[in-house]
């Protein structure tokens, strides 16, 4: 094996220019694959980070079957403390209640949450304070309104300390948050919104109990949404006796999902183009190997006469094709690395990261090997099949 | 050693059927030095190809060391060529890119001999043909006589039971030819079985036994 490897290197070395030209196809193919895929993943990674920076990377967990061990507020707290990937968990329940100021009465959407919700939903406080842990512990009758609701119900935004009724119970407004301006918020939450401690909502609505069925999760800084999702999934599987259907975790990040889709489509597209150029390179290798086999017919005859079996000849020429491919692959990876470095320096200001992706490198190595074998097999077999006398007398 | 029984080989050239070998019977015993002589087109190359297991007969039987060759698969034939037969060709047939010692080493590689053993045996074979000093040279850097001696070393290195030489002096001048023939004689005296094919009477006469071939038929020449 080592011997035939050395032999292959020698016969490639005997025809350097031809070998270099043949390898060019593979080199370009590998470069296309590695550079393009790295560029795409680098670009989408940067955009993804930018989206994550907007704070909309939250997870929603819905428990559909609690298996007799319902999730409580205290569970959520202990999960936050024990999972490094999870920064915040807030229960989430909503109820439609009538409410208003004085004698006026409107339909309110009242959300039962905990202080963590502020961080998860990336709400922005305008005046006053947000809900506090003590509010949750005491089921205090306090609420936070968004600016829009405050202006509609009370008449002005600066209304901290005012009292409103929710479901007939008086609540003190402790803070005002910005009205959400996202598309989803406009579509879904156009009415009057009030945020109250989860424990307070339990008393207001019959539909909301101490068993938390829906909660939101915010991943810690430095962790991806996926990390948090995996950590929580493991937790919940353990809790619900490995039943995947007992709960559902979904990411609300539509933009990120869309980006991922675009990313994977782009990767497949570019990978496909690269694969085509690699196949073209492989055909080049097959072409040259066929020429080599014809050129060396006499050598094949001599080798066969002194005892080379079909297998020996097959391995020799197959090895040559594979070595040619792998050399091209190595050169291609090296060039891509150089190109990526150069691009990184040029676009250093955009903070785009362009690492040489190991999976792409491994993929191209495997692909080149495969191409070497596939396109080397036919010429090598042609060589191996030659009859010793015909080969010996070839060209005198 | 070699036993040909009623061996025939027919070539189809266009419409014509050429009988290159016509019911040939031949017996070569161990440690014999036999030369087969005939003009070109007499079928001697065909005979050599069949004896050398490079080709198979159309009819008849060929026993090498008592084993019928027809029964062998392609792989086994390669094994036979590798272990039992050492070839020396008219045009030397060395591989141009390999040095003298690498050419000699090649059959041992195909035999799967260990590296240390290979090095020892290559050295031994090159010493036998007196070319130890030129081991690292490529065939193009060697004279015709030296190339043929490398080829003989390559044939000897596997210690074959049969040394098969096809016009070994055909491409050499008379002085070098004599040197090469001396070498064959010496190899014979060391106990090697040699079959030498030639069209040159002077060369053929060096052998202990001479066989004529004409139009695919053999006839023994008594000395």
Description:
In chain A, the strands form two sheets. A six-stranded mixed barrel of chain A has the order 3-4-9-6-8-7. Chain A has helices spanning 2-13, 16-53, 73-82, 116-120, 133-138, 147-153, 183-188, 198-204, 225-239, 254-295, 297-305, 310-346, 358-385, 388-392; strands at 59-63, 86-91, 93-100, 106-113, 125-128, 142-146, 163-166, 169-177, 192-197, 214-219, 247-251. Chain A is α+β, with helices and mostly antiparallel strands. In chain A, helix 2 (16-53) crosses helix 12, helix 2 (16-53) packs antiparallel against helix 13 and helix 12 runs antiparallel to helix 13 (358-385). Chain A has two domains: 2-50 and 258-392, no CATH class; 59-252, no CATH class. In chain A, 40% of the residues are buried. Chain B is of the alpha/beta class and 223 residues long. In chain B, the strands form two sheets. Chain B has a six-stranded mixed beta sheet, sandwiched between helices. Chain B has a four-stranded antiparallel beta sheet with strand order 2-1-4-5, covered by helices on one side. In chain B, helix 3 (100-111) packs parallel to helix 5, helix 4 packs across helix 5 and helix 5 packs parallel to helix 6 (174-189). The interface between A and B is medium-sized, with 23 and 25 residues.
């Amino acid at each position: 094996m080592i011997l035939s490897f050395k032999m292959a290197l020698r016969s490639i070395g005997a025809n350097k220019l031809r070998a270099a030209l043949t390898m060019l196809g593979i080199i370009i193919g590998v470069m296309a694959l590695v550079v393009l895929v790295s560029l795409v993943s680098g670009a989408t990674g940067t955009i993804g980070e930018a989206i994550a920076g907007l704070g909309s990377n939250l997870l929603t967990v819905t428990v559909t079957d609690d298996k007799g061990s319902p999730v409580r507020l205290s569970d959520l707290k202990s999960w936050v403390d024990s999972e490094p990937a999870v920064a915040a968990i807030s229960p989430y329940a909503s109820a439609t209640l009538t409410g208003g100021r004085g004698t006026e009465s409107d339909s309110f959407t009242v959300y039962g949450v905990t202080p963590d919700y502020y961080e998860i939903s990336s709400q922005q406080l305008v005046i006053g304070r947000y809900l506090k842990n003590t509010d949750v512990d005491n089921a205090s009758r306090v609420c936070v309104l968004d600016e829009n609701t405050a202006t509609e119900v009370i008449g002005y935004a600066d209304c901290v300390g005012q009292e409103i009724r929710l479901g007939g119970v008086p609540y003190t407004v402790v803070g005002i948050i910005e009205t959400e301006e996202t598309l989803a918020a406009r579509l879904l939450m156009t009415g009057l919104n009030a945020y109250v401690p989860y424990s307070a909502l339990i008393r207001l609505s019959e539909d909301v109990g101490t068993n938390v069925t829906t909660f939101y999760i915010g991943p810690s800084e430095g962790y991806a949404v996926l990390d948090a999702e995996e950590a929580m999934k493991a937790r919940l599987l353990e809790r619900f006796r490995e039943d995947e259907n007992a709960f559902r975790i979904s990411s609300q990040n539509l933009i990120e999902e869309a980006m991922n889709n675009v990313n994977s489509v782009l990767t497949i597209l570019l990978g496909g183009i690269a694969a085509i150029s690699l196949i073209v390179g492989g055909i080049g290798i097959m072409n040259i190997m066929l020429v080599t086999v014809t050129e060396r017919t006499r050598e094949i005859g001599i080798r066969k006469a002194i005892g080379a079996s079909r297998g020996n000849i097959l391995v020799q020429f197959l090895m040559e094709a594979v070595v040619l491919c792998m050399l091209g692959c190595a050169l291609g990876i090296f060039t891509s690395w150089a190109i990526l470095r150069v691009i990184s320096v040029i676009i250093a200001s955009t903070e785009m990261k362009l690492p040489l992706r190991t999976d792409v490198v491994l993929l191209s190595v495997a692909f080149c090997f495969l191409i070497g074998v596939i396109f080397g097999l036919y010429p090598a077999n042609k060589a191996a099949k030659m009859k010793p006398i015909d080969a010996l007398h070839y060209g005198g | 050693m070699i036993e040909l029984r009623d061996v025939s080989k027919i070539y189809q050239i266009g419409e014509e059927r050429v009988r290159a070998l016509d019911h040939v019977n031949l017996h070569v015993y161990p440690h014999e030095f036999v030369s087969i002589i005939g003009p070109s087109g007499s079928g001697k190359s065909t005979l050599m190809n069949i004896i050398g297991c490079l080709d198979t007969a159309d009819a008849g039987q060929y026993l090498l060391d008592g084993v019928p060759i027809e029964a062998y698969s392609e792989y086994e034939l390669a094994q036979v060529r590798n272990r039992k037969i050492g070839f020396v060709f008219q045009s030397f047939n060395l591989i141009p890119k390999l040095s003298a010692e690498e050419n000699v080493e090649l059959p041992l590689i195909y035999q799967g001999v260990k590296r240390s053993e290979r090095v020892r045996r290559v050295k031994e074979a090159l010493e036998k043909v007196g070319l130890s000093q030129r081991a690292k040279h490529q065939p193009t850097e060697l004279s015709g006589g030296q190339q043929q001696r490398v080829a003989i070393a390559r044939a000897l290195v596997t210690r074959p039971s049969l040394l098969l030489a096809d016009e070994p002096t055909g491409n050499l001048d008379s002085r070098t030819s004599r040197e090469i023939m001396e070498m064959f004689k010496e190899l014979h005296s060391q106990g090697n079985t040699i079959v030498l094919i030639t069209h040159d009477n002077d060369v053929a006469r060096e052998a202990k036994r001479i066989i004529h071939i004409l139009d695919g038929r053999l006839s023994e020449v008594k000395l």
